[in-house]
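User: Can you predict the 3D structure for this chain?
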Amino acid sequence: MENSTEVKPAPKLFPLIFERLHALNYSPRTQESYIQWIKRYILFHSKRHPREMGAPEVEAFLNHLATEKKVSASTQNQAKSALFFLYDALEQALPALQNVTRIKAQKQLPVVLSKQEVQAILSSLDGTAWLIVSLLYGSGLRVMECLRLRVADIDFARLEIFVRDTNGHKNRITLLPASLVEPLKMHLQNVQALHNEDLSKGVGEVWMPPELTKKYPDAGKDWQWQYIFPSSRLSVEQQSGVVYRHHADEKPIQRVVKKVAAQAGIKKVVSPNIFRHSFATHLLEGGQEIKTVQQLMGHADESTTKLYTKVVNTGGRGVASPLDVI
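Assistant: Here is the predicted structure, written as structure tokens:
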């Protein structure tokens, strides 16, 4: 009898990608982003399987994003990371991409709100939306940094917020406005009640970063690791079937901020992150040193922080959160 070698069929693409993302403990947001970029890449090449393609097709897609779609440098880099992940999962390592039109990141002057405009928006908000926007302005947080905050990240005694895994994958400490201590404590009472209810139903787990999962395997249900701004719904992780309560989505905050700004007659393009820019600008207006603002903002380079000096005239005063002085 002749020997025959059975050739196993290649695993289906997206189950393979989901399995790899889950195995590496990528955050839900990163998983969603990578899946979307991989789908766009496949559709761009008329639904050809990625195994049939390689560096030339990746370069063509990234160049399309640069020249036709006019995306930002960060968006192109995100797409590139997703495709490198794809081919790594397929065990087809991509070579260095030599023919990609690389988008230059342009440093533009930040759009900021005046203190009166900030107050007009905050006075039109209430509840959780008010608390989130107050933290964006009062602590200089990016919107996703705020939504990803855990209970353990707040130090009420020291008036500090520990910000994890920012853009440069570096942690930092920023200030907690004294005026938000009591509202935040009251908010956390409601969040803890929701968490206790989840636990009573056999759920109550949150996604944990890989390094913390290894160190504290059962920490996902601990109160200290719960999100401060949890989602109103539970989610089921596709591969493992684990039920999580993720953090709240940023889209409702984006919508309400835009709506309230328009109602207040503010003609600027207002998004949640404008409050972070306003935080830095108002600190510099109050005379705070650039180095201190750089540290609070988490800027790797002082030149980024210096952009804010072009829209203010600085004087001299002690440090305080801008939320506490409006």
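The first strand starts at residue 154 and ends at 155. Residues 181-200 form the longest helix (20 residues).
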